[in-house]
Amino acid sequence: EKGTYPHFMLKEIDEQPFVIRNIIQKYQNEDGTVRLDEDIRQAMKSSDRIYIIAAGTSYHAGLVGKQLIEKIAQRPVEVHIASEFLYNMPLLSENPLFIFISQSGETADLRGVLVDVKEKGYKALTITNVPGSTLSRESDFTLHTYAGPEIAVASTKAYTAQMAVLTLLAVDTANAKGIELDFDPIQELAIVASAMETLCDQKEKLEQIARDYLATTRNCFFIGRAADYFVCLEGSLKLKEISYIQAEGFAGGELKHGTIALIEDGTPVIAIATQEHVNLSIRGNVKEVAARGAHPCIISMEGLEHAEDAFVIPKVHEYLTSLATVIPLQLISYYAALHRDCDVDKPRNLAKSVTVE
Ligand code: M6R
Questions:
Q1: How far, in Å, is the centroid of ligand 1 from the Cα of 233?
Q2: Is residue 352 flagged as an active site residue?
Q3: By the 8 A CB rule, do 272 and 228 touch?
Q4: What pLDDT does 253 receive?
Q5: Between β-strands 123-128 and 141-144, what pairing exists: parallel, antiparallel or unpaired?
Q6: What is the C-alpha to C-alpha distance for residues 48 and 55, in angstroms, rounded to an integer?
């Protein structure tokens, strides 16, 4: 039920701090360490390469998951769009492990890949919000994202829940391999949950940004580098899905290879700057688009902010920035859709779960 909320999407955005705390509780041992099922731990440990298969927003969580698993657990990971994987399968490693990420657990494109890899004798882990779902039943292992039912077509809390669970999966694998971590994952996720609360409390400011930049525009670009690029892809999907604004996420450095030709007077460009090692280069890209007439809106992180930034997110661990950065992007999309009189919870041409190929 929506309760006092006008839309499920807004309710589900606000639920994200609770979801992260819930995940911490579900996957934490009594002594405060992370521990997943032994069979998942063994499957992760013994595989020589992980293949993440997903679609849409879950694919974007997979891109972040690759970084988390490679950085924390030092395991090589590939991420593939499910509908492409079947028809354009890469050369597989000797001992692959497949991870299917799906909020609904019913997405037909993923099921096609699952059936195929199971036939080939490979092991599969499904990360889903619906444990009894088709993908969960047909996989060897399941990790539950514990986000609670997600009703709005636009996925919000499922995405952050998927990234939180992927963090814990990476940490558990690192522990299994005896890799020492230089951060406390439970504490860092708790910091993310508080940051999410602070962000959800800034709706008025984000509504104003949506009004200033997106009320009448035809298109909008999101730019970022490294981890910020992945959240740009998610921010642009959210915006196009519910507000029908033509939106694209680009890697900052790619602009000069063609995309910058699209910048016109007043084109909104939302730039994300939460990664210290690329902070100056993404700001350089902002100058390039501003010089061509763009209307830039910089979203940065505490400690890296400059005076001209439109919005600053609280500081979170560098591996976990996407979990926080996506909140203002979700809210900006929500208010843009609202101001453009769109049906926020049920956008045109879309269904909550895509059970046809
Ligand atoms: O249920 P799934 O996670 O497998 O769904 C995948 C996509 O269809 C889904 O994420 C879609 O992109 C969302 N509507 C995006 O908000």
A1: 13
A2: yes
A3: yes
A4: 96
A5: parallel
A6: 23
DSSP state for residue 184 in the 8-state scheme:
-
Atom of ligand 1 nearest to the CA of 135: 4
Pairing type for strands 219-224 and 268-273 reads parallel
Question: Is the minimum distance from the CB of 133 to ligand 1 under 6 angstroms?
Answer: no
Pocket test for ligand 1, best of 59, 63, 103 (most atoms within 8 A of CB): 103
Task: Give the per-residue SS3 of 6-32.
Answer: CCHHHHHHHCHHHHHHHHHHHHECCCC
Dist. CA 192–CA 186, nearest whole Å: 10
Higher pLDDT, 44 or 344: 44
- The mean pLDDT value of the chain amounts to 96
Mean pLDDT in residue range 1-12: 95
The yes-or-no verdict on residue 326 having pLDDT over 90 is: yes
pLDDT at position 354, please? 83
What is the predicted ipTM? 0.98
CA 307 / ligand 1 centre spacing (Å): 36
Atom of ligand 1 nearest to the CA of 104: 1
Q: Is the CB of 129 under 6 A from ligand 1?
A: no
